[in-house]
Amino acid sequence: MKAIQFPLIRVTLAFIIGLFLGKLIVVPPVLWACGILFSALTVGVIHFYTRKFIVPPNALGGLLLLIFVGIGGMRIAMDNPQRNPNHFSHFLKKSQSCSLVVTLESQLRTSTTRTRYVAEVHQWNGQKTMGKIVVGFPKNKQPYTVGELYGVTGVFLPLQPAVNPGQFDYSAYLKNKHWYGQLLVSRAKSLAPPPKSIPAIADGIRQTVHQRLKKHLDESDLALVMALILGQQQDMNADLIQAYQKAGAVHILSVSGLHVGFVLIFIQTLLKPFPNTRRYRRVKIVMVILGLWSFGFLAGLAPSVLRSVVMFSGLAVGAYLRRSSNSYNTLFTSLFLILLWEPHALWDVGLQLSYTAVFFILWLHPILQNLWSPRSKVGRYVRDLLSVSLAAQLGTLPLSLYYFHQFPGLFFVTNLLLLPGMGVLMGLGLLSVLMAYLNWIWSPVLKLMQWALDLMNGIIRLIAAQEEMVWSGIPMNLTAMLLLYGIIVMGVFAVERRNFYSYRNFLGSILVFQLAIFGIRHYHWQEEAWILFHQRKATLIAHQQYDQYRFLCKNNTALMTLEAFALSRWLAPATRQDMRQHRFWLNGKKIALVDETGRFPKVRPHILIVTNNPRCGPESWLRRHRPDWVVLDGSNGYQLRKSWRECCYQLKIPFHDTSEKGSFSVF
Q1: Mean pLDDT of the chain
Q2: How far apart are CA 289 and CA 306, in angstroms?
Q3: Fold of the domain built from segment(s) 88-195
Q4: Where is the ComEC/Rec2-related protein domain (predicted)?
Q5: Burial of 184 (0-12, 13-18, 19+ CB in 10 A)
Q6: What is the pTM of this model?
């Protein structure tokens, strides 16, 4: 892989290593600055004495890269809003009710009961503050405007780690975005109209387009247009999104390089009547860059959009200067600039998938092209389409399994059927959005676009219906993901070089991967475990015995928690069996379960589990039997949890509430 030899790529990789180190090793920025200064002085001394002494070039290059490692560590150490003494997290009280003054910055996906926004906090209970939170307004109330200043009152929910094993850590996701909590709004009042900021203007344009197209398109088609063209997936139907995921076409819904490329072609088509003189070429390049960045702001500047806009802007400038630019350099330049501006974007799933897909396309596409050389134009088009799709899927396969644990087997069919018509669909969509903004709606364009959307959705649903070709429930952790990337890279080297050493390395990487999987499974299966999960208004218990487990569950709302638990422990989902009992034995420990019937065990248990609000006083039984632990799950009400907590505190019995401390495990 010759691309790694470019200096800019090495600098970017060193900067990324610094970001990882800064995330793992929490030290003040001044210590990173001292390290950078020491490395810079060392480089200066070596450079000064190079004429008198022989210095290995790798030593000087290594020290230069070490400087960028330090810059990455210092940059992520500085990127912490909580270092500011005015951050609202320093003013949190025990009371959850609070009054805030906030500015809405962007809209998030709407939940079943709340319309959610990211908001900047200006005041917290009258105290001047800063910081960002997620604000949830009651659904179907008054419309809210991005950029507007609101006085809101509600209940604040601080960040809490995941409460169940294998569960998605939503608090870590919010913290990575620098959103340090959620506010459930009960009352809201507008204090000031939105200023003329770029996000407010972009949101105003989106709202105008949405309101005008709403009169001519049904709800599902309108949501799809807003997602395809403007990157707004808030109103997308959950079932339709799942169908796109199963068909391997979810990248079509996320505005990325495919969409930005079509926008570039659209702008260049509009600018074709201008002569190609030096003066008008300047006008063209300015219009192209303005058009790309305007589209980027309209689409919300998500990581994939930002990457694409930066890359295509670089390509457009290179074409204007009539200089050929290396694609790898352009890709890593955009990555370096994005991470320099927003270091925590490195942990954004969208950015990881976007850059990995593009990198593998640039690397694998030429190699896959050489494997098949059809003579006809149609054959070459199909080959290019399949090679690009295969390269992108191979590049994102480990990440997709790590984050989503499923893989669409018919992705190549989806891309082969949909991508050829995406140019027409994007053109119709851009034209419809432009007409809607200008308040000049031409019905034939909308009808043609509606027909194209219905056709695309029909193809997606047909492919997604082939359930046997959607491989889901695939366990994957970080170690397995990295080793799987090793197999893919060694496999590509074997196809490209075709010698003994490349084949040996490829087979060796497969062997290492298999040994790692064996070790991971042995680690998770070596002991028996009993877990009480936290579920709101429900009870969920799992009993793991090596690679299988049984469960107690009185409703079906907790099955997703069980699936996440099984994936995290590499358990086989097919071995689940329903388990209904009130007494358990595990490694000499007796566990007793008390439910709504209020029947306490007659013999002292080591652990007492209280579920479903039993109607009986605990004090007399606790004084008589005094278990080692008393555990209450989420099926109990607040008052009952409070009374049991106070009683256990008086009797000095260890108490565990899953709503506060998460799941309870016995090994």
Answers
A1: 84
A2: 13
A3: OB fold (Dihydrolipoamide Acetyltransferase, E2P) (2.40.50)
A4: 228-497
A5: middle
A6: 0.87
